[in-house]
């Protein structure tokens, strides 16, 4: 142990300190955080530049036959909204939003009791098992998740086998909205749970016990204590899960067998089949705007309102 | 806690999450030409097929490369950024913090498309690096969050004590701060690595034939009935995810984070 | 606890080891340190005492260099340390949370400052052992920090702060989180250490008993200002302000107006009660003043035993163990008088006569805090 701090190591450190002194006289010390953030800023900056470039592309016309960029025009957005192609894109957008909302609602509804159990159960084995089950779907990868559900929902898969037990022919769920819904729930529920947990964790268990002694049934305790105090977490869960689901690609593509494309699938097709970066840009930006307006802004506003309400109650 | 409603919901979720895992693992060890449920027999054939299939092996190699590149980029960008946002007070702190989340707040397909457009314009398509850059940007917040939590739970007095004991800033960082945030760095790195090797959308848009990563190869083969190699690959992903998660949850600090029963 | 040994050398004998002159530290519009002048003498054990938010910790941290000051000068051993960063001030510091490095063993913790100073390897082992001996923990060098008890961790923190022989040791409420027994034990430890080693100690605490027990001198702070500096006893007996009087011990703080008389100076309350005050104190006739009457100085009897007392009725009686605490309502005094009795036989509601030796009653001119 004594040898570690001698010789080379210390000379390196002295070098670092000297370099630090040269680079950091007085005022430049202020720049320290910016220097630390520089690599990250550059990296995320690539995305920012890319998005701006998308904006640029989306306001140009494009000749799909000649593969040539035209002049400034609203052509791409017109294609998205006006017939003959508009309804298709709008329908896709609607389908995306509706299914995503359904999955989000389901995930939150299932996530609340799950979160509660993990936080309150004294049984360590149960808690660890649940946590592992929650975290694994995240790290599996979209394609593997989708593959798993493909196997389950196919005719020759588990669903078909179970249906066959009941004498139902062709009981696979592939190609149906229900199938896509179930598949998407697998990652949305854990995500919702993980986001609800921090807020729920802050609830003093004694509050629930107090409510019980005051005569509240479990349902009432949930309605009046647990859920209201978990609101920030619930809102965060709704925002993030919805955001992720709107952008979903794999599940609709594979589980929907191509009959139920989401916006992401259509954008992918626009690129693969038409090489049309312009229309793709427009649709991507449309999706970005929709998700910001529909999800992020209401979420932030709601959280702000929650904080304001809390401050007003404890202040004046 | 023991109400029937709660029990039912929990059981439902366990099914929802555990069944797919089990199915994949089962499929990865099923014999027979085609995958069916219940499987015709159990065998390690899929894994043998995986090893034997040159294309799939190459794709796996590329995915691992991408994973490592993502780790390197994430560490270089994410660790200093997390330190800057947590330990310093400066004027643009909040806007820059929000800026970092851009990759997560933007729908994945839009980000992927942005990278596609940008890299097409610069002509960089055809190498794995654009894919790694894209995946890093999108997953950076996870590493930053992990490091930031570690940093926040570190007693700031430790760094002050080191200063009173005669340590320069560099020494304090190397001998006190860095060991303290190691758990956060490690778990963040694991997460980012696994997310990198299994990422799909960005790899899909930015790929050309000779830089197919494993998820894309798997996707291609899902047109018809999936060959056993794909099942084995999926099995590997599940095993990797399980190992990482078990490591993460066995850290004492994670456990204490989740349980509260005053 | 007995009185301290001979006080530290006087200021005119040697230069102060730490001097604050007009030091100001502000956060926004609020002055955490409000024009403080203070001199710490070499080898003394000085305590900064005050309630939360009084600025005492801020002063300590300014001396340590952990925060900068906005005005005034701060010198340590004669040199202005404004531009000297913390790690070059050669001070030792123990924090309330101890801040022992959790990822290092006890040995590595204590060796840390020596390694930072590039001490030669062979010396380090010996000096760590010496430091552990001084705090009387010889055998635990290889243990991890979390394996130690609270008291042991305290001692390790002290050993780490002393192993490189700093001239100045700063203690930031290190005993605050300990239970009573451990706290008393550690107080004795600190006194012993101070006697054995050549070091100046600046201690910060809100516990006035601790301050008086440990220190050669005490400085009382309130709201960023240094109210009074002196030995514990002089602060207790001759407070310069209402605040100091109220902060130390249990005092009855009675406002009124100074009035001379045939029986000597007294403070006359708005209600007309006359509180005799020590003749030592000369405050001009008619000036607003506050009489300070310590609870332990008041005697209580059922019948008057001489002039110069007050009649009253017992309102509250609480058994405290060593003493019985009483509150007696006296006409002319707006708040009940508090006193501590050794016998405590008088019940609630009894009409009593309160007396006190007038030399023990101090007076403070109003407007002095």
Explain what the structure shows:
The complex is a heterotrimer of chains A (316), B (262) and C (369). With 316 residues, chain A is mostly helical. Chain A has 13 helices and 2 strands. In chain A, helix 2 packs across helix 13. The N terminus of chain A is likely disordered. Chain B has 13 helices and no strands. Chain B is globular. Chain C contains 8 helices and 20 strands. In chain C, the strands form 4 sheets. Chain C has a 6-stranded mixed beta sheet, sandwiched between helices. Chain C has a 5-stranded antiparallel beta sheet with strand order 13-12-11-14-20. The N terminus of chain C is likely disordered. The chains are: A mainly alpha (316), B mainly alpha (262), C alpha+beta (369). At the A-B interface, helix 1, helix 2, helix 4, helix 5 and helix 6 of A face helix 1, helix 3, helix 4, helix 5 and helix 6 of B.
Features:
heterotrimer; A: 316 residues; mainly alpha; two-stranded antiparallel sheet; 13 helices; 2 strands; B: 262 residues; 76% helix; globular
List the topology elements.
The complex is a heterotrimer of chains A (316), B (262) and C (369).
Chain A (H helix, E strand, L loop, with lengths): L7 H16 L8 H27 L1 E4 L4 E5 L2 H7 L4 H35 L3 H17 L1 H12 L4 H8 L11 H25 L3 H9 L4 H29 L3 H6 L7 H12 L2 H38 L2
Chain B lengths: L3 H25 L16 H8 L1 H34 L5 H8 L1 H4 L2 H15 L5 H25 L3 H9 L4 H29 L3 H5 L8 H7 L7 H23 L1 H7 L4
Helix pairs in contact in B: 1-12, 2-12, 3-7, 3-9, 3-11, 7-9, 8-9, 9-12
Chain C lengths: L17 E10 L2 E11 L4 E5 L6 H9 L6 E6 L2 E2 L10 E4 L11 H11 L4 H14 L15 H13 L5 E5 L7 H17 L3 E6 L2 H7 L2 E6 L2 E6 L1 H6 L4 H6 L3 E9 L6 E3 L5 E3 L11 E7 L4 E3 L8 E10 L4 E6 L7 E5 L9 E5 L6 E4 L4
Parallel strand pairs in C: 3-8, 3-9, 6-7, 7-8
Antiparallel strand pairs in C: 1-2, 1-4, 4-5, 9-10, 11-12, 11-14, 12-13, 14-20, 15-19, 16-17, 16-19, 17-18
Helix pairs in contact in C: 2-3, 2-4, 3-4
């Amino acid at each position: 142990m004594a040898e570690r701090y001698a010789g080379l190591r210390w000379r390196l450190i002295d070098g670092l300190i000297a370099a630090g002194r040269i680079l950091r006289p007085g005022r430049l010390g202020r720049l320290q955080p910016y220097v630390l953030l520089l690599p990250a800023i550059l990296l995320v900056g690539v995305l920012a530049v890319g998005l701006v470039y998308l904006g640029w592309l989306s306001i140009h016309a494009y000749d799909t036959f000649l593969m040539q960029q035209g002049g400034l025009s609203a052509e791409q957005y017109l294609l998205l909204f006006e017939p003959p192609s508009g309804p298709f894109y709008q329908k896709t957008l609607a389908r995306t939003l509706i299914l995503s909302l359904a999955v989000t609602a389901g995930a939150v509804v299932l996530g609340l009791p799950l979160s509660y159990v993990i936080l309150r159960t004294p049984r360590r084995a149960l808690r660890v098992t649940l946590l592992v089950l929650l975290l694994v779907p995240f790290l599996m990868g979209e394609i593997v998740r989708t593959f798993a559900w493909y196997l389950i929902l196919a005719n020759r898969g588990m669903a078909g086998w179970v249906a066959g037990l009941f004498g139902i022919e062709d009981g696979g769920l592939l190609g149906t909205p229900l199938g896509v819904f179930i598949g998407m729930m697998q990652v949305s529920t854990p995500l919702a749970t993980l986001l609800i947990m921090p807020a729920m964790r802050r609830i003093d268990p004694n509050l629930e016990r107090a409510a019980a002694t005051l005569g509240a049934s479990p349902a009432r305790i949930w309605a009046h204590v647990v859920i209201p105090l978990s609101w920030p977490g619930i809102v965060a869960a709704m925002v993030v899960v919805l955001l992720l689901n709107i952008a979903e690609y794999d599940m609709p593509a594979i589980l929907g067998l191509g009959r139920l494309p989401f916006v992401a699938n259509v954008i992918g097709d626009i690129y693969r089949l038409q090489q049309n970066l312009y229309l793709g840009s427009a649709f991507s930006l449309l999706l970005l705007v929709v998700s910001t307006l529909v999800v992020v802004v209401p979420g932030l506003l709601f959280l702000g309102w929650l904080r304001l309400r809390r401050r007003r109650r404890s202040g004046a | 806690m023991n109400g029937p409603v709660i029990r039912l919901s929990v059981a439902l979720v366990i099914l929802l999450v555990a069944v797919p895992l089990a199915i994949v693992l089962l499929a990865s060890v099923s014999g027979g030409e085609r995958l069916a449920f219940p499987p015709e027999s159990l065998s390690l054939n899929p894994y043998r097929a995986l090893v034997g299939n040159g294309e799939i092996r190459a794709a796996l190699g590329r995915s691992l490369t991408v994973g490592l590149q993502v780790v390197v980029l994430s560490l270089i960008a994410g660790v200093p950024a997390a330190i800057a946002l947590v330990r310093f007070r400066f004027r643009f702190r909040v806007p820059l913090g929000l800026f970092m989340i851009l990759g997560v707040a933007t729908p994945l397909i839009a980000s992927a498309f942005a990278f596609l457009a940008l890299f097409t314009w610069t002509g960089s398509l055809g190498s794995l690096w654009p894919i790694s850059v894209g995946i890093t940007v999108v997953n950076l917040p996870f590493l930053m969050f992990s490091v930031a939590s570690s940093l926040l739970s570190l007693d700031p007095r430790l760094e002050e004590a080191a200063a009173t004991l005669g340590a320069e800033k560099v020494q304090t960082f190397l001998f006190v701060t860095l060991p303290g945030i190691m758990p956060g760095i490690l778990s963040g790195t694991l997460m980012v690595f696994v997310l990198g090797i299994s990422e799909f959308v960005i790899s899909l848009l930015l790929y050309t034939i000779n830089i197919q990563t494993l998820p894309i190869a798997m996707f291609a083969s899902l047109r018809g009935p999936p060959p056993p190699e794909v099942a084995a690959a999926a099995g590997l992903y599940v095993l990797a995810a399980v190992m990482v998660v078990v490591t993460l949850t066995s850290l004492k600090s994670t456990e204490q984070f989740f349980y509260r029963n005053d | 606890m007995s009185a301290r040994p001979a006080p530290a050398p006087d200021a005119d004998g040697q230069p102060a080891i730490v001097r604050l002159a007009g030091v100001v530290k502000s956060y926004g519009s609020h002055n955490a340190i409000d024009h403080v002048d203070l001199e710490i003498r070499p080898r003394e054990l000085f305590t900064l005492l005050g309630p939360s938010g009084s600025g005492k910790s801020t002063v300590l941290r300014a001396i340590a260099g952990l925060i900068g000051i906005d005005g005034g000068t701060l010198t340590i051993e004669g040199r202005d340390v404004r531009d000297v960063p913390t790690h070059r001030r050669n001070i030792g510091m123990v924090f309330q949370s101890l801040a022992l490095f959790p990822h290092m063993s006890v040995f590595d913790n204590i060796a840390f400052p020596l390694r930072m100073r590039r001490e030669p390897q062979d010396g380090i082992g010996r000096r760590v052992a010496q430091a552990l001996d001084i705090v009387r923990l010889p055998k635990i060098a290889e243990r991890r920090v979390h394996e130690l008890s609270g008291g042991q961790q305290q001692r390790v923190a002290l050993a780490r702060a002393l192993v490189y022989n700093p001239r100045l040791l700063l203690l930031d409420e290190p005993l605050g989180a300990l239970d009573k027994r451990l706290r008393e034990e550690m107080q004795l430890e600190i006194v012993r250490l101070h006697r054995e080693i050549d070091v100046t100690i600046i201690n910060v605490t809100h516990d006035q008993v601790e301050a008086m027990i440990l220190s050669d001198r005490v400085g009382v702070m309130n709201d960023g200002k240094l109210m009074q500096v002196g030995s514990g006893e002089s602060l207790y007996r001759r407070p310069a302000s209402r605040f100091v009087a109220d902060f130390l011990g249990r005092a009855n703080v009675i406002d009124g107006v100074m009035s001379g008389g045939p029986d000597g100076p007294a403070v006359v309350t708005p209600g007309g009660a006359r509180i005799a005050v020590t003749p030592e104190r000369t405050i001009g006739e008619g000036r607003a003043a506050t009489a300070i009457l310590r609870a332990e100085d008041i005697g209580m009897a059922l019948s008057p035993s001489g002039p110069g007392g007050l009649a009253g009725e017992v309102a509250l009686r609480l058994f405290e163990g060593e003493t019985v605490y009483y509150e007696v309502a006296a006409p002319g005094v707006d708040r009940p008088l508090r006193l501590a009795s050794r016998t405590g036989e008088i019940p609630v509601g009894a009409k009593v006569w309160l007396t006190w030796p007038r030399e023990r009653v101090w007076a403070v001119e109003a407007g002095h805090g």
